[in-house]
Amino acid sequence: MFSHVSLGVTDFDRALRFYRGVLGRLGIEERFCEPDVPWAGWQPAGGGRPFFFIVHPLDGKPMSVGNGQMTAFLASDRKAVRDAHARALDLGGSDEGEPGLRPHYHAYYFGAYFRDPDGNKLCVVCHDPEG
What we know:
Oligomer: single chain
Distance between the termini: 24 Å
Largest sheet: 4 strands, mixed
CATH class: Alpha Beta
CATH superfamily: 2,3-Dihydroxybiphenyl 1,2-Dioxygenase, domain 1
Helix content: 10-25%
Number of strands: 8
Number of domains: 1
Structural class: alpha/beta
Order of helices and strands: EHEEEEHEEE
CATH architecture: Roll
Strand content: 25-35%
Mean pLDDT: 95
């Protein structure tokens, strides 16, 4: 359904440390990193799409956070949700909802919410029962 998702960042090195730490916990593989641009991208384990990118805004204007926007990453199990959330907070992210069931979405929705150091809202979720 998606080709790619791109998030603007202000401090590329800080964002790179953050996303390497969080996405690594989810088994999402780094595809490239070009600090001179600067931008970096990740893809699902084994390749293919969708891609996830971090980048300084290409128009040269300051990065800003959208209200109501969120990027959600799929986790293989509930432990990965917990691990990614904890790692995000260790790397300077802020909590927006600790790991847990969210039955108002569906019976097995186990998610966690946080913001990256730039304020972009993120979610990590597992949809599997007892996953």
